[in-house]
Write a structure and sequence with these properties.
The complex is a heterodimer. Helix content of chain A is about 45%, strand content about 10%. Chain A is of the alpha/beta class. Chain A has an 8-stranded parallel sheet, sandwiched between helices. Chain B folds into 2 domains: about 80 residues, Methionine synthase domain (Methyltransferase, Methionine Synthase (B12-binding Domains), Chain A, domain 1); about 120 residues, 3-Layer(aba) Sandwich (Rossmann fold). Helix content of chain B is about 50%, strand content about 10%. The chains are: A alpha/beta, B alpha/beta.
Chain lengths: ~325, ~210
């Protein structure tokens, strides 16, 4: 089986030749290639070269055309600060109040900010890999983009203080995600990961997720599937167990589970949902490869057909390559 | 909890700033002591929020709303300055390279309403500045909040830098999404707090008084 076939079989709970494994390698690909992160995040050819090198080295089942969480907000006018060798951050948010979203227009992904870099990376990765492994793009989910446009504190207070304006902001954020996500699929990505860490139950109550976020995530997943995405992958970190049962109704096929979530409880909460996770991300920095292998064995001992072995969140930039390799090798050993 | 303050506490737990303020004003009219309002109202609300925030119910938004309401009442009662410090001085900061300060700000709010004097070193703060603030403010603890993993080596430096300044007695507490994946031993700190209330419990356990 190819990596793509393995992942898609796993999503359908069908047998595969081995457990699908996706180390969530983003900027770490630049680190191991000896490339500065600012180059990686601004040059599609560099990102592509680094992702291909990481794939060649670790041999996971996916690559990522993914820059950072600031692509959309930058394209809409937020000012970023780019440190030499770490991810950028927002220096000035484009919105000072949620109602000002009325003055923003959905950006053209082929022109705005670094959106074209991501599209070009998706095109190059797909051109090179075809259907050998999953080529994943990335869009921010509505809650996280709202926080990135307004600042997290103001966005969260706005959810309570200015609910109507906040909902308009969420609608706009969802429109941006649809436009950008569909452009990524057109460019060559098989799927777009919907990355929405601010929708975590650690940040907002599950009731807010159910009432305000789930309907917009449903529209987003539908729009991506209309454009040809075979599956939808929702990535929310933290204690997601209370909201996992809502994922299938949102059209989500793969749900990320972080290290703090018990896989057995996650499975009980969402029996039909493909899960990916959940090795502690910092373990790739502060543990030994044997520890990673043991953690993987513990997870795989209880995994069913609908489980993708992965890190609970992004593999840290400074991860030890031997630890990342241990994650992938544990699947090979487990399947032999 | 004092029954007279029950309505105030309920409004605080609802995160309803306006209703909490109105109730605080009503309570103050017959001359209710401001300190009592803080201890039996604000602190009681925070204690109840702490009990509610088990690992499965914890979310930042609810704490932010209660904290904001509590701070509004505190400013009403003590318009000239901060809530009286009854539990000692702390320094809190997000380390250099990390600009995610939501968790830090929430922790600062919770600690302030619990009677701690909190000196905020802000985000993207060099560890040397944190140590300088500890010395200058005679703080008994320094709290460091980190969302991203590259700050881990900086946190490990804190205790050594404190020792160099003759501040080995100062407690070091870490928290935040990245740091709470580590053990206290791995970070070379005294305690890794799971959340803002866990941090309060640890600090209260130290029994420091100003």
């Amino acid at each position: 089986m190819t990596g793509l076939e393995r992942v898609l079989a796993t999503v359908r709970f069908e047998p595969s030749d081995q457990v699908a494994v996706i180390p969530q390698i983003f900027g770490h690909a630049a680190r191991i290639a000896g490339v500065s992160l600012d180059q990686y995040l601004t040059d599609a050819a560099v990102l592509t070269r680094c992702q291909l090198a990481a794939l060649d080295r670790y041999r996971g089942d996916a690559v990522f055309a993914l820059l950072d969480v600031n692509v959309e907000t930058e394209a809409l006018g937020s000012r970023l600060r780019f440190p030499k060798d770490s991810y950028p951050s927002v220096e000035q948010y484009v919105l000072e109040r949620p109602s000002a979203v009325a003055e923003l227009a959905v950006p053209d992904p082929t022109k705005a900010g670094r959106m074209p870099v991501l599209l070009e990376a998706a095109r190059l990765l797909r051109q090179e890999l075809q259907d050998r492994v999953l080529v994943a793009g990335c869009v921010l989910g509505p809650m996280t983009l709202a926080c990135q446009l307004l600042g997290a504190e103001r966005a969260l207070f706005a959810a309570v203080d200015e609910p109507e304006a906040f909902e308009r902001l969420l609608d706009f954020a969802a429109d941006v995600a649809v436009s950008f996500g569909q452009a990524q699929l057109e460019a060559g990505a098989h799927i777009c990961v919907v990355f929405d860490p601010s929708a975590s139950p650690a940040v907002v109550p599950p009731a807010l997720f159910r009432e305000l976020l789930a309907p917009r995530l449903r529209l987003l997943c539908q729009a991506l599937k209309r454009k040809g995405s075979p599956v939808s992958w929702l990535h929310i970190a933290g204690p997601v167990e209370p909201i996992l049962p809502l994922y299938p109704d949102c059209g989500v096929d793969i749900g990320n589970i972080d290290y703090c979530v018990d896989p057995a409880r996650a499975r009980a909460a969402a029996p039909q949902l493909c899960l990916d996770g959940n090795i502690r991300p910092l373990a790739f920095v502060d543990s030994e490869p044997e520890d990673i292998a043991a953690a993987c064995r513990r997870v795989l001992d209880h995994a069913d057909a609908g489980f993708i072995l992965s890190s609970g969140c992004e593999i840290p930039l400074e991860a030890r390559p031997a630890c990342v390799q241990a994650l992938v090798d544990s699947v090979k050993r487990n399947s032999s | 909890m004092d029954a007279a303050l029950g309505t105030l506490v309920a409004h605080l737990l609802d995160g309803n700033s306006q209703a909490a303020l109105a109730e605080a004003r009503r309570l103050r009219t017959p001359g209710l002591d401001g300190q009592r309002l803080v201890v039996e109202g604000l602190e009681a609300a925070m204690d109840l929020m702490s009990a509610k925030c088990t690992s499965e119910q914890f979310n930042l938004l609810e704490i932010m709303l209660t904290g904001r309401a509590a701070m509004a009442v505190a400013r009403e009662v003590f318009p000239e300055g901060s809530v009286p410090c009854t539990r000692g001085t702390l320094v809190i900061a997000t380390p250099q390279g990390d600009v995610h300060d939501l968790g830090k700000n929430i922790t600062r709010m919770v600690l302030t309403t619990k009677g701690f004097r909190v000196v905020d070193g802000g985000k993207d703060c060099p560890v040397a500045e944190m140590v300088a603030a500890v010395a200058r403010e005679q703080a008994f603890a320094v709290l460091v909040s980190g969302l991203i993993s590259p700050v881990v080596p900086l946190v490990r430096q804190l205790r050594g830098l404190l020792r160099e300044r003759g501040l080995a007695h100062v407690a070091v507490v870490a928290g935040g999404a990245a740091l709470k994946q580590c053990t206290a031993e791995a970070l070379n700190v005294d305690y890794v707090a799971h959340d803002a209330f866990d941090c309060v419990h640890f600090l209260e356990g130290l029994g420091v008084r100003p």
